[in-house]
Design brief:
Strand content: 5-15%
Distance between the termini: 35 Å
Structural class: alpha+beta
Largest sheet: 11 strands, antiparallel
Shape: globular
Number of strands: 21
Helix content: 40-55%
Length: about 725
């Protein structure tokens, strides 16, 4: 998805001979290739059997046009009537929202046998990449006119906003975004079409779509039917529209053909997707911060929250259902971060990066010209990060407080509103203007829908209890608790009072605050407002310092990559940033530990072996009955004598790859990516053929479940499968 005109990739791949007769596929280069680089790859030598223009053609229709970004996941059109195939966990939240204890679609599954029965997927939209354009010169021109680092970041931000404003003014149906490809070097404008009416079509029961639960999350072998079908709708004239009975199915320019025969071990596969964030091009100090501060702080906090929410839902089915999506999101991140910490230690990655940078510094010092231009880059990067290290857990506490404690976030919003209304309306944040009032009210309504005061109070108390131990976090109230011999007791008493007395915690009261004058707002005697008055100025100061550090790194990282390219005599693929990418590899097993080898295809037999009547491996009786009757339909792998369930492959994937179509050599859909192995959670920082494996649900299992469990033959027919 990125346009890096200066990047040149190898045009051929090396094949390794085995004995004198057989060959096995090559090891692909790591990387999530942007759109601009696809034509430079020799994918046909790697195993692709179609023309590369059929994968991506900037002047015509290609497979890329079948891709959608849906929520934080990827999906793909699989019929001319806007049918979308993505992961079960990508639609999980929407299914949970329309479920009740009496009509629990999440547990029992959901099927719409007619278009009229399809249910709006609340909160889900999808977007399609329309075009892209390199705008680096315009962004850098603005940046280079700045007088200091903070002004540089502000100038970049202003230039991006201006470009977005201009693009969206030209075409109101387009959503524009400018993505940074390499810090301080390249920026690309992407134009997206957004579809706002997404509906649920078929979602298998949770015991299939989430089979293995957290026990198997980020683990191989895997037996999870992680898929769901959605449909995109637009207005009768084809324009994007919110839900209406008058809307019609969207007709994409391209949809993927489904290959019901799947793939075999060592087959070539490639993935088109919208991966989230990766950090392979970051310096060693970035990893130091991750390992010492960010990963352990968030992993520990989320682990505690998961346990607390799980306990709260016991013996309360309504609350358990309400908390299910929240727990799932936290658990996915918690285990991912735990895996990253294990990987960083196992690979000794920080030390390896530091030694690599020592060699880079020696290379720089070997030339007077290089030393003059780049000699201070690594020391200066270290200085910038040392400022972050001095802040320790402070920025993490401040950001997590707003994200995970609703009561505090409400106080923060009101505090910000009070400051913004002192400005002329034209200078305010849009959400606090007359024009943005409805947006603000919608946000408030959504916030209160998810507000659970008693549980919220426990999270806030937990965060403050932790903060007492971090001396870098210092403000009046926290210091009082820190000096107390019975801090936990005092914290409990204080937050009981806050949640009992604050007038902000009732929706009607809170909304009424936005009609008050500045004098009235200043005279509100509320414990949450008082807390925000202590914390928000500290956060503003931290944000200002962070912006300055970002400005410094914007310049330093550009030089860092410049000289690293000279040293290694190679170019780099830009880190993933939520824009369209391609990655490729082969269906391949791996050996994660001594004397251990995992083959790359699991089967329905493994589902039955794991299956239980309860817990993470709860298995619907219908699956066992079909298995015992050997009712596999047309989806048996002959060599295995079983229905394949999941496959393993050595592509480079990350967050955001969920729901990505795994395509075979002919560009046909053979699986849906949904996970990585535990060892591969470190992919965001480093990829390796030894341990980087991604996991997809085999299309044969998707089709078998859809037909045999869901009874949805009509979906197979819609996809052209006889």
């Amino acid at each position: 998805m990125k346009l890096l005109n200066n990047i040149v990739f190898k045009s051929s791949l090396l094949f390794i001979s085995i004995f004198s007769l057989a060959t096995i596929p090559t090891i692909p280069d790591e990387g999530m290739y942007p759109l601009s680089e696809i034509s430079k790859l020799d994918l046909n030598s790697a195993g692709l059997k179609i023309n590369v223009d059929e994968v991506y053609n900037p002047n015509g229709v290609s497979l890329i046009d079948a891709l959608v970004r849906i929520g934080g996941c990827t999906g793909s059109f699989v019929s001319e009537d806007g049918l979308i195939l993505t992961n079960h966990h990508c639609s999980f939240g929407s299914v949970q929202k329309v479920s009740t204890v009496e009509n629990n679609y999440l547990e029992n599954g959901l099927i719409a046998r007619t278009r009229e029965e399809e249910i709006p997927a609340t909160g889900l939209t999808c977007r399609i990449t329309v075009s892209y354009e390199d705008v680096s010169s315009r962004i850098l021109s603005a940046a280079n006119s700045a007088n200091d680092f903070t002004e540089r970041i502000n100038a970049i931000s202003a230039a991006i906003k201006q470009i977005v404003l201009e693009e969206e003014k030209k075409d109101s149906t387009i959503k524009a975004e400018v993505s940074e490809m390499f810090a301080g070097q390249s920026y690309v404008l992407f134009r997206y079409k957004t579809i706002n009416d997404i509906r649920l079509v078929y979602v298998p029961p949770r015991a299939i779509g989430e089979f293995g639960g957290e026990s198997d999350n980020w683990v191989w072998p895997r037996h999870t039917g992680d898929f769901s079908f959605l449909r995109a709708y637009v207005a009768p004239d084809g324009s994007p529209a919110t839900f209406s009975k008058d809307n019609v199915p969207y007709h994409p320019k391209k949809y993927l053909n489904v290959n019901p025969n799947g793939v075999d071990e060592n087959d070539f596969v490639f993935i088109l997707d919208y991966p989230g964030r990766t950090f392979k091009n970051q310096p060693a100090q970035f990893l130091v911060y991750q390992q010492k501060y960010q990963l352990p702080y968030i992993q520990n906090l989320f682990s505690w929250m998961i346990n607390m929410y799980t306990e709260a839902g016991k013996n309360n089915p309504t609350l358990e259902l309400e908390l299910s999506s929240r727990i799932k999101g936290l658990a996915n991140t918690e285990k991912n971060f735990r895996g990253k910490l294990v990987g960083l230690e196992r690979l000794n990655l920080v030390d390896k990066k530091l030694k690599e940078e020592e060699q880079l510094q020696s290379f720089i010092n070997s030339s007077a010209e290089l030393k003059q231009k780049y000699g201070d880059v690594l020391p200066e990067i270290k200085k910038v990060y040392e400022k972050s290290f001095d802040n320790g857990m402070k920025p993490l506490f401040l950001s997590m407080l707003s994200r995970n404690v609703t009561a505090y976030n409400l106080a923060r919003i009101l505090y910000e509103f009070r400051n913004e209304i002192q400005k002329p309306e034209a200078e305010r944040k849009k959400v606090y203007t007359s024009e943005g009032r409805q947006q603000l009210l919608n946000s408030i309504n959504n916030t209160f829908k998810q507000f659970l005061p008693e549980l919220d109070k426990k999270v806030m108390k937990k965060m403050f209890s932790d903060a007492v131990n971090y001396t870098e976090i210092s403000f009046g109230l926290l210091n009082e608790f820190r000096q107390s011999e019975d801090a936990d007791v005092k914290l409990s008493e204080y937050f009981d009072k806050v949640y009992g007395e604050s007038v902000l915690l009732a929706k009607e009261n809170f909304i009424s605050m936005f009609d008050k004058s500045l004098d009235e707002l200043n005279n509100i005697d509320d414990p949450l407002i008082k807390l925000a008055e202590q914390i928000e100025p500290m956060k503003a100061e931290e944000d200002f310092k962070a912006s300055a550090r970002e400005g410094e790194l914007n310049v330093l990282l550009a030089k860092f990559l410049e000289v690293k390219k000279l040293w290694l005599n190679k170019n780099f693929i830009p880190d993933a940033n939520g824009t369209l990418r391609l990655t490729y590899g082969y269906v391949r097993g791996y050996s994660p530990a001594d004397a251990t080898y995992f083959s790359p295809i699991t089967t329905l037999k493994g589902v039955i072996e794991k299956g239980r009547s309860y817990g993470d491996y709860k298995l619907p009786q219908s699956v066992s009955e079909l298995y015992n009757k050997k009712d596999f339909g047309d989806f048996v792998e002959e060599d295995l004598g079983q229905v394949p369930v999941a496959i393993l492959y050595n592509t480079d994937t990350s967050g955001g790859n969920s729901g990505s179509p795994v395509l075979d050599a002919n560009g046909e859909l053979v699986a849906l990516n949904f996970d990585r192995c535990f060892e591969a959670t470190i992919n965001d920082y480093a990829w390796s053929e030894d341990y980087s494996r991604s996991i997809g649900v085999d299309i044969r299992y998707v089709l078998w479940v859809t037909q045999k469990i869901g009874g949805a033959d009509f979906l197979l027919e819609e996809m052209g499968i006889d």
